[in-house]
Amino acid sequence: MKIAFAKPTLPKGGAIAVPVLEGRKLGPTATALDRRTKGALTRALEASRFEGKVEETLSVLAPRGLSCSRVVLVGFGKADALDALAAQRIGGALAAQLAPSGETTAALAVDGFAKAGAPAAVLAANIALGASLRGYRFDRYRTTEKSDERPSLKSLTLLVGAPADARKAFAPLASTAQSVSTARDLVSEPANVITPQAFAAEAKTLSKLGVKVEVLGVKKLKDLGLNLMLGVGQGSAHEPQLVVLRWNGGGKASAPVAFVGKGLTFDSGGISIKPAAGMEEMKTDMAGAATVLGVLRALAARKARVNAVGVCALAENMPSGTAQRPGDVVKSMSGQTVEVIDTDAEGRLVLSDALWYTQDRFKPRAMIDLATLTGSIMVALGFEYAGLFANDDELAEQLAAAGVATGERLWRMPLNESYDERIKSEIADMKNDGGRWGDSINAAVMLKRFVGKTPWAHLDIAGVAWATEDWPIAPKGATGFGVRLLDRFVAET
Ligand code: BES
Ligand code: MN
Ligand code: ZN
Q1: Band of the pLDDT at 118, cuts 50, 70, 90?
Q2: Which terminal CB of the chain, N or C, has fewer other CB atoms within 10 Å?
Q3: Do residues 454 and 364 touch, judged by C-beta distance below 8 A?
Q4: Which ligand is nearest to the Cα of residue 278, counting in written order?
């Protein structure tokens, strides 16, 4: 969908969208159009349940007296609650409403509301962001789809008093939205396409933005001793890969911030194989790595004045004659040994080595990992929040604040020593399975043993990486959760 900004004028055709505040209070443009159409909008309001709340829309088709094919009343909510996040949801709702409507062009009059929290240009930019994020569609493999099954909407113009300001405010948001799309594409791709090698090849394309990309294959990983990661991948025909991305936008001497992503291109469970129903969703088990790639892309695209490292730990967890077995004991890069009780608890194995490697090599000032790590976090938090675990309160607070600001919300979970008992092994330093209760915590407690003294946070994104229903600013499917969150985190710290 093409986004444009222009001075307010009534378009000759297509859809014209106009704000209505909560309590059915028509904005200035809606009032003017109501007059021109001899009250068509008021009558439509009276015939409907539309209240003017954020995310509500009401279409009035072909009203007499207008050359536009429809007027869309768009709920703007309460004027004093009209902030960036509300604007994004408004844009998302409008895009969702118009995408299948048959309209190819639409314009939204972003009326200035005297009491509104943000200036109209900033509102317009955030509405545009919400519309483009919600307008995302992964249609690479739909080859027989007819044109009337595809979204009709091709362009959305935001009408504002200061279009140049809005355009300027939108530029960085559009760039971040691009990075969110990149992450969503990777997660949406099936596992026969996105193998560890294919992911690494995709990562290499970031070099044109100035990101340094290194790919460590099996030989290098063996030399370094990342045996937990190698063990997880040893049953697959596709070898594990560790991708290291570096964006050096900060001073030479300043320690980087590091992001580490779980990148299971497919998680069958391995020998502890998963049930068949729903297993296809495990193509998304590389969402953490996809987000890390997206964040590094976002930072490079906006030339962030920061040193950042992204590590994507890529492997495929498959059952086979070469697969690791329950009961295997493996020595990690850190030297600690792990008894593999359940080969389906593979994320914590891969991440443990990746975290150790990252802190050992880069001595980061902070290290944040993202992983679709446990079903247990979905039991605890559903799809609303990602789980946040941290060994550092300040880091946890900074991340939680970035979550509130971007709407990618985090909920802090406990991580105290009393949980250690649960991952005690009879034969090794620890085991990779602490039983059913509090498993997202058991997993985090294991990771904590591989971060040394580095300020570290772990985001369990199993519940938020893939939407089973449409979200306000993400159609169902891959959400790209974490890209905007961490981009904001970097901007604020
Ligand atoms: N990738 C899964 C977690 C997951 C589940 C992500 C559902 C997204 C949706 C992870 O590797 C896993 O299999 N975890 C097991 C751990 C258990 C065997 C200790 C789980 O959560 O059941
Ligand atoms: Mn698993
Ligand atoms: Zn997994």
Answers
A1: confident
A2: C
A3: yes
A4: 1
User: What is the 387 CA–ligand 3 centroid distance (Å)?
Assistant: 16
User: Tokens representing 263?
Assistant: 């990148």
Q: Is 309 helix (H, G, I), strand (E, B) or coil?
A: strand
Query: How many Å lie between the centroid of ligand 3 and the Cα of residue 465?
Result: 13
Cβ atoms of residues 377 and 271 within 8 Å: no
Collapsed DSSP state (helix, strand, coil) of residue 299: helix
Minimal-distance CA residue to ligand 1 atom 7:
375
pLDDT tens sequence across 165-224:
999 999 999 999 999 999 999 999 999 999 999 999 999 999 999 999 999 999 999 999
pTM comes to: 0.98
Of 163, 159, 162, the residue nearest 10 (C-alpha): 159
DSSP collapsed to 3 states, 267-285: ECCCCCCCCCCCHHHHHHC
Q: How far is the CA of 27 from the centre of ligand 1 (A)?
A: 49
State the residue for tokens 């009879």: 426
Q: How far apart are CA 429 and CA 449, in angstroms?
A: 11
Q: Quick one: which of 312, 310, 374, 273 has its CA closest to 186?
A: 312
Is residue 58 within 8 A of residue 50, CB to CB? The reply is yes
Structure confidence by residue, pLDDT tens digits, 336-363: 999 999 999 999 999 999 999 999 999 9
Rounded to whole angstroms, how far apart are CA atoms 96 and 61?
Answer: 17
Residue 56, burial from CB neighbour count under 10 angstroms (0-12, 13-18, 19+): buried
Q: Is residue 274 flagged as an active site residue?
A: yes
Task: Answer positive or negative: Cα dihedral of 37, 43, 44, 45.
Answer: positive
Angle at 181 between CA 176 and CA 184, to 5 degrees: 130
Question: What is the band of 263 on the pLDDT scale with cuts at 50, 70, 90?
Answer: very high
What DSSP state is assigned to residue 480? -
Nearest protein CA to atom 5 of ligand 1, as residue: 375
The residue from 348, 409, 422, 448 that is catalytic is 348
Instruction: Please count the CA atoms within 13 angstroms of the CA of 227 that sit on its side-chain side.
Output: 15
What percentage of the chain carries pLDDT values higher than 90?
A: 97
pLDDT at 114 over 90: no
For the question of residue 154 being annotated catalytic, the response is no
